């Protein structure tokens, strides 16, 4: 399958993020804008003529961290960001994932369908960055929701939000949106990418009436500046559709993966925030009327 992107003139400069050679064959054609006339009515319709296949790192069951209740979480391979604190750098390249059909993923999730439903949970598509494989992601969300009857969540940085069709987002009950910094310079230092696409995607989710959980990683000496936390909190509160904020304390559990990949983990000497520091950050969000955990 060949991935066809819109002409460069039709896309923001940041949207043409580099992909590796495996990425080029991972997806079918996608529309240049979410509301293009050629957009299929559902993600499933976009792949009706052939099996939906994607690059997957793994799948797992989780509770409390990837959306409400017990979740069947599919971790897709490939990410345009290179976050300094990433605990799964082995998901950065799509070529390192396993080529898997949507049928296989749905069959696996179906084994846990009753258990998940009884817990008030659902299915989450995570990564990596799911929107690097928008057709496959849309197919999974559509089938989780309509075939298995599960609550659906999309875990994304929002950087590739322009690739999410309205059809994909109609099948998404909750967006877990990572806002890694409010300060633009810090955001680029952390991720290697600009912040603005994430903010644009956040506003689009407001227009679509989507429930959002904001995720913010608190890193001492990097993202914990009071004005930075205040900036994220002010923005999140202004949206009106953020029902929860997860303040995630920085940890180094993924450092061994960096070493195994021959990459330098530059935050090796950075400590995790103290419980008091984490509580202070949560209090900033709470002061803006947000539910922070």
Short description:
The chain has 293 residues and is α/β, with parallel strands linked by helices. The chain has helices at 43-46, 102-110, 113-118, 134-146, 166-170, 184-191, 196-207, 226-239, 255-260, 275-287, and strands at 53-63, 70-76, 98-101, 122-126, 151-156, 174-178, 211-218, 242-249.
Word description of this protein:
With 293 residues, this protein is α/β, with parallel strands linked by helices. The chain is 31% helix and 18% strand. α5 links the parallel β5 and β6. The N and C termini lie far apart (42 Å).
Which characteristics define this entry?
alpha/beta, 8-stranded mixed β-sheet, 10 helices, 18% strand, disordered N terminus
Strand order of the largest sheet: 3-1-2-4-5-6-7-8
Overall pLDDT: 86
Distance between the termini: 42 Å
The coarse overall form would be globular
User: Strand count, sense and closure of the main sheet?
Assistant: 8 strands, mixed
Structural class estimated from helices and strands? alpha/beta
Please work out how many helical segments DSSP would assign. 10
Tell me the series of helices and strands, N- to C-terminal. HEEEHHEHEHEHHEHEHH
- Could you tell me the radius of gyration in angstroms? 18 Å
Low confidence ranges: 1-41
Beta-strand proportion: 15-25%
